[in-house]
Protein backbone atom coordinates (compact mmCIF):
# COMPACT_ATOMS: atom_id res chain seq x y z
CA UNK A 1 0.00 0.00 0.00
CA UNK A 2 2.67 2.56 1.02
CA UNK A 3 4.53 1.99 -2.25
CA UNK A 4 1.56 3.50 -4.13
CA UNK A 5 1.98 6.85 -2.38
CA UNK A 6 3.91 9.63 -4.08
CA UNK A 7 4.12 11.91 -1.08
CA UNK A 8 2.89 12.15 2.49
CA UNK A 9 0.95 15.37 2.83
CA UNK A 10 0.05 15.22 6.53
CA UNK A 11 1.97 12.86 8.78
CA UNK A 12 0.31 10.80 11.50
CA UNK A 13 1.97 12.72 14.38
CA UNK A 14 0.87 16.02 12.87
CA UNK A 15 -2.73 14.81 12.64
CA UNK A 16 -2.65 13.59 16.24
CA UNK A 17 -1.41 16.91 17.62
CA UNK A 18 -4.04 18.81 15.68
CA UNK A 19 -6.82 16.48 16.87
CA UNK A 20 -5.86 17.27 20.47
CA UNK A 21 -6.59 20.94 19.75
CA UNK A 22 -9.85 20.37 17.85
CA UNK A 23 -11.08 18.02 20.59
CA UNK A 24 -10.35 20.64 23.23
CA UNK A 25 -12.29 23.27 21.25
CA UNK A 26 -15.24 20.90 20.94
CA UNK A 27 -15.10 20.11 24.66
CA UNK A 28 -15.25 23.80 25.53
CA UNK A 29 -17.90 24.72 22.94
CA UNK A 30 -20.28 21.91 23.91
CA UNK A 31 -19.57 21.81 27.65
CA UNK A 32 -23.09 23.02 28.45
CA UNK A 33 -24.80 20.19 26.53
CA UNK A 34 -26.40 17.42 28.57
CA UNK A 35 -25.23 15.05 25.87
CA UNK A 36 -23.99 15.74 22.38
CA UNK A 37 -25.29 13.90 19.34
CA UNK A 38 -22.51 13.16 16.88
CA UNK A 39 -23.40 12.10 13.34
CA UNK A 40 -20.53 10.73 11.25
CA UNK A 41 -20.70 10.27 7.50
CA UNK A 42 -19.52 6.81 6.45
CA UNK A 43 -17.14 5.59 5.39
CA UNK A 44 -14.81 8.54 5.02
CA UNK A 45 -15.22 9.86 8.57
CA UNK A 46 -14.52 6.49 10.21
CA UNK A 47 -10.86 6.94 11.12
CA UNK A 48 -11.19 10.65 11.94
CA UNK A 49 -14.24 9.96 14.10
CA UNK A 50 -12.52 7.24 16.13
CA UNK A 51 -9.38 9.29 16.77
CA UNK A 52 -11.14 12.60 17.41
CA UNK A 53 -13.99 11.43 19.63
CA UNK A 54 -11.76 9.46 21.98
CA UNK A 55 -10.14 12.80 22.80
CA UNK A 56 -13.45 14.51 23.68
CA UNK A 57 -14.37 13.89 27.34
CA UNK A 58 -18.09 14.67 26.92
CA UNK A 59 -21.08 12.32 27.01
CA UNK A 60 -21.42 11.71 23.30
CA UNK A 61 -23.97 9.68 21.40
CA UNK A 62 -22.79 8.50 18.01
CA UNK A 63 -24.83 7.82 14.90
CA UNK A 64 -23.50 7.07 11.44
CA UNK A 65 -25.02 7.92 8.09
CA UNK A 66 -24.35 6.09 4.87
CA UNK A 67 -24.13 8.59 2.11
CA UNK A 68 -22.84 8.15 -1.40
CA UNK A 69 -21.57 11.28 -3.05
CA UNK A 70 -18.53 10.00 -4.89
CA UNK A 71 -18.79 7.35 -7.48
CA UNK A 72 -15.45 5.68 -8.03
CA UNK A 73 -13.23 8.28 -9.66
CA UNK A 74 -11.51 11.36 -8.33
CA UNK A 75 -14.24 13.84 -9.20
CA UNK A 76 -17.27 14.59 -7.04
CA UNK A 77 -20.50 13.75 -8.83
CA UNK A 78 -22.58 16.33 -7.00
CA UNK A 79 -25.32 13.79 -6.32
CA UNK A 80 -25.85 12.88 -2.66
CA UNK A 81 -27.75 9.66 -1.96
CA UNK A 82 -28.95 8.66 1.52
CA UNK A 83 -28.47 4.92 1.68
CA UNK A 84 -29.82 4.02 5.15
CA UNK A 85 -33.24 2.43 5.45
CA UNK A 86 -33.75 4.30 8.71
CA UNK A 87 -32.28 7.71 9.50
CA UNK A 88 -31.34 8.63 13.10
CA UNK A 89 -33.82 10.34 15.41
CA UNK A 90 -32.31 13.78 15.86
CA UNK A 91 -35.41 15.75 16.86
CA UNK A 92 -34.53 18.73 19.01
CA UNK A 93 -30.88 17.72 19.23
CA UNK A 94 -27.71 19.73 18.76
CA UNK A 95 -25.65 17.84 16.21
CA UNK A 96 -21.94 17.70 15.55
CA UNK A 97 -21.65 16.42 11.99
CA UNK A 98 -18.35 14.78 11.02
CA UNK A 99 -16.95 14.15 7.57
CA UNK A 100 -13.54 13.44 6.12
CA UNK A 101 -13.25 16.34 3.71
CA UNK A 102 -14.98 19.48 2.51
CA UNK A 103 -14.51 19.39 -1.25
CA UNK A 104 -17.41 20.78 -3.29
CA UNK A 105 -19.39 21.11 -0.05
CA UNK A 106 -22.40 19.33 -1.50
CA UNK A 107 -22.26 16.45 0.96
CA UNK A 108 -22.10 18.62 4.07
CA UNK A 109 -24.77 20.88 2.71
CA UNK A 110 -27.13 18.04 1.81
CA UNK A 111 -26.60 16.18 5.08
CA UNK A 112 -26.95 19.33 7.24
CA UNK A 113 -30.18 20.13 5.46
CA UNK A 114 -31.45 16.59 5.92
CA UNK A 115 -30.70 16.72 9.67
CA UNK A 116 -32.57 20.01 10.00
CA UNK A 117 -35.48 18.50 8.01
CA UNK A 118 -35.45 15.60 10.47
CA UNK A 119 -35.91 18.12 13.30
CA UNK A 120 -32.38 18.77 14.55
CA UNK A 121 -32.18 22.00 16.56
CA UNK A 122 -28.70 22.92 15.39
CA UNK A 123 -25.97 21.41 13.19
CA UNK A 124 -22.26 22.18 13.54
CA UNK A 125 -19.86 20.64 11.05
CA UNK A 126 -16.39 19.22 11.60
CA UNK A 127 -13.99 17.92 8.94
CA UNK A 128 -10.46 16.61 8.86
CA UNK A 129 -9.64 18.41 5.62
CA UNK A 130 -10.87 21.46 3.75
CA UNK A 131 -9.84 21.87 0.14
CA UNK A 132 -8.79 25.36 -0.77
CA UNK A 133 -10.94 25.97 -3.85
CA UNK A 134 -14.00 27.73 -5.14
CA UNK A 135 -17.11 25.80 -4.18
CA UNK A 136 -20.41 25.60 -6.05
CA UNK A 137 -22.18 25.91 -2.70
CA UNK A 138 -21.32 28.33 0.10
CA UNK A 139 -20.44 26.01 2.97
CA UNK A 140 -17.71 26.24 5.54
CA UNK A 141 -16.96 23.79 8.30
CA UNK A 142 -17.26 25.02 11.88
CA UNK A 143 -14.20 22.93 12.74
CA UNK A 144 -11.55 21.96 10.21
CA UNK A 145 -8.26 20.31 11.14
CA UNK A 146 -6.29 21.09 7.97
CA UNK A 147 -6.58 23.09 4.79
CA UNK A 148 -5.06 21.46 1.70
CA UNK A 149 -4.67 22.41 -1.94
CA UNK A 150 -7.15 21.31 -4.57
CA UNK A 151 -5.65 17.87 -5.16
CA UNK A 152 -6.88 14.34 -4.71
CA UNK A 153 -5.72 12.73 -1.46
CA UNK A 154 -6.09 9.36 0.22
CA UNK A 155 -5.61 7.91 3.68
CA UNK A 156 -6.89 8.49 7.19
CA UNK A 157 -10.35 7.47 6.01
CA UNK A 158 -10.22 8.84 2.49
CA UNK A 159 -10.29 6.32 -0.33
CA UNK A 160 -9.52 5.91 -3.96
CA UNK A 161 -11.84 3.32 -5.46
CA UNK A 162 -12.57 1.96 -1.97
CA UNK A 163 -8.93 1.52 -0.99
CA UNK A 164 -6.28 3.29 1.12
CA UNK A 165 -8.66 4.32 3.94
CA UNK A 166 -6.41 2.58 6.47
CA UNK A 167 -3.30 4.60 5.61
CA UNK A 168 -2.34 6.28 8.91
CA UNK A 169 -1.50 9.56 7.15
CA UNK A 170 -2.93 11.72 4.36
CA UNK A 171 -1.05 11.31 1.11
CA UNK A 172 -1.11 11.74 -2.63
CA UNK A 173 -1.22 8.70 -4.93
CA UNK A 174 1.34 8.09 -7.64
CA UNK A 175 -0.27 9.02 -10.99
CA UNK A 176 0.43 5.45 -12.15
CA UNK A 177 -2.08 4.19 -9.54
CA UNK A 178 -4.95 6.32 -10.85
CA UNK A 179 -7.02 4.87 -13.69
CA UNK A 180 -8.67 7.66 -15.57
P1 LIG B 1 -18.05 17.01 -1.40
O1 LIG B 1 -17.58 17.25 -2.80
O2 LIG B 1 -17.62 18.11 -0.47
O3 LIG B 1 -19.51 16.73 -1.35
O4 LIG B 1 -17.30 15.71 -0.90
C1 LIG B 1 -17.86 14.47 -1.12
C2 LIG B 1 -16.99 13.35 -0.73
O5 LIG B 1 -16.03 13.21 -1.73
C3 LIG B 1 -16.18 13.44 0.56
O6 LIG B 1 -16.90 13.08 1.71
C4 LIG B 1 -15.13 12.39 0.26
O7 LIG B 1 -15.61 11.09 0.59
C5 LIG B 1 -14.95 12.51 -1.23
N1 LIG B 1 -13.73 13.26 -1.58
C6 LIG B 1 -13.61 14.56 -1.90
N2 LIG B 1 -12.34 14.88 -2.14
C7 LIG B 1 -11.64 13.73 -1.97
C8 LIG B 1 -10.24 13.40 -2.06
O8 LIG B 1 -9.34 14.22 -2.34
N3 LIG B 1 -9.92 12.10 -1.82
C9 LIG B 1 -10.85 11.15 -1.50
N4 LIG B 1 -12.15 11.41 -1.38
C10 LIG B 1 -12.53 12.70 -1.62
MG1 LIG C 1 -15.29 8.78 -0.31
What keywords describe this structure?
180 residues, alpha/beta, Rossmann fold, six-stranded mixed beta sheet, two-stranded antiparallel sheet, 3 helices, binds inosinic acid, binds magnesium ion
Polypeptide structure, described:
The chain has 180 residues and is an alpha/beta fold. It has a single domain, classed as Rossmann fold. Helices cover 21% and strands 33% of the residues. It contains three helices and eight strands. The protein has helices spanning 12-29, 46-53, 106-117, and strands at residues 5-10, 36-42, 60-70, 76-82, 94-102, 122-131, 143-148, 170-173. Strands 4-3-2-5-6-7 form a six-stranded mixed β-sheet, sandwiched between helices. The protein is globular, with a radius of gyration of 16 Å. The two termini are 19 Å apart. The structure holds inosinic acid and magnesium ion (MG). Residues 44, 69-70, 76, 99-107, 152-154, 158-159 line the site of inosinic acid (IMP).
